[in-house]
Specification:
Elements: H1 2-7, E1 10-14, H2 19-31, E2 36-40, H3 46-56, E3 61-65, H4 70-78, E4 83-85, H5 91-100, E5 104-105, E6 107-108, H6 111-119, E7 124-128, H7 135-145, E8 150-154, H8 162-166, E9 174-176, H9 187-198
Parallel strand pairs: 1-2, 1-9, 2-3, 3-4, 4-5, 6-7, 7-8
Helix pairs in contact: 2-3, 2-9, 4-5
Bound molecules: 2-keto 3 deoxy 6 phospho gluconate.
InterPro entries: Aldlse_KDPG_KHG, Aldolase_TIM, KDPG/KHG_AS_1
Protein name: 2-dehydro-3-deoxy-phosphogluconate aldolase
Organism: Poseidonibacter ostreae
């Protein structure tokens, strides 16, 4: 899982409810080189959007976010997700991901949560909510303490600071929703934003 994220280290975190719109936006992002997509399960049609994107763009690495119930892991695997992301973690989520052999990125933000995931053998962790949990300066401090842990910070990251995160030695990739805001951005705006990201990563 880590290698795919290294190849395209900015992961758009997308909240879709309309299948057609989700296909149009995913096409732009993938064409521009943002080939790792995290679709949140926060809308009634999120699963249908994921299913359509997976079918239409087999070259993309499509994962599901907002995994907070263990049964969601099997559901998203069955519709073709290749990874699953949670804002936090519980032992039952971790065990279920292991049982079904799903690439799983659980979340942590405090030292104790990070240690708990280390105890479960998880050395690639989502750092959530990055912006409200000390930002890249906190992750920089964690680099010296948790030398073997690699992070995918997500939450509150934007155009202004994503490169600061990517420059850290303990950051493999990061997630963010700033490049797609369907209320305020046109498809053209999304394309420009995606281009500006891929030109520097
Ligand atoms: O729904 C989930 O499980 C999530 O993972 C939350 C997302 O990571 C954040 O919504 C992304 O944060 P923003 O870039 O600040 O929007």
């Amino acid at each position: 899982m880590i290698n795919e994220f290294k190849n395209s280290p900015v992961i758009p975190v997308l909240t879709f409810n309309d299948v057609n719109e989700s296909l149009k936006i995913s096409e732009i992002l993938i064409q521009e080189g943002l080939t790792n997509l995290e679709i949140t399960l926060r809308t009634p049609n999120a699963m249908s959007c994921i299913e359509a994107i997976v079918k239409e763009f087999p070259m993309a690495n499509v994962g599901a976010g907002t995994i907070i119930k263990k049964e969601q892991l099997l559901q998203v695997q069955n519709i073709g997700c290749t990874f699953a992301v949670s804002p936090g973690a519980t032992s039952s989520l971790i065990q279920e991901a292991k049982r079904i052999d799903m690439n799983y990125l659980p979340g942590a933000s405090t030292p104790s949560e990070i240690i708990s995931l280390i105890e479960d053998g998880i050395f690639f962790q989502k750092f959530f909510h990055a912006g409200n949990s000390g930002g890249y300066k906190m992750l920089q401090a964690y680099a010296n303490i948790f030398e073997e842990v690699q992070f995918c910070p997500t939450g509150g990251i934007g155009q202004k600071d994503f490169q600061d995160y990517l420059n850290l030695k303990n950051v493999v990739c990061l997630g963010g929703s700033w490049m797609v805001n369907t209320k305020t951005m046109s498809l053209n705006d999304i394309q420009i934003e995606a281009k500006s990201i891929t030109s520097v990563i």
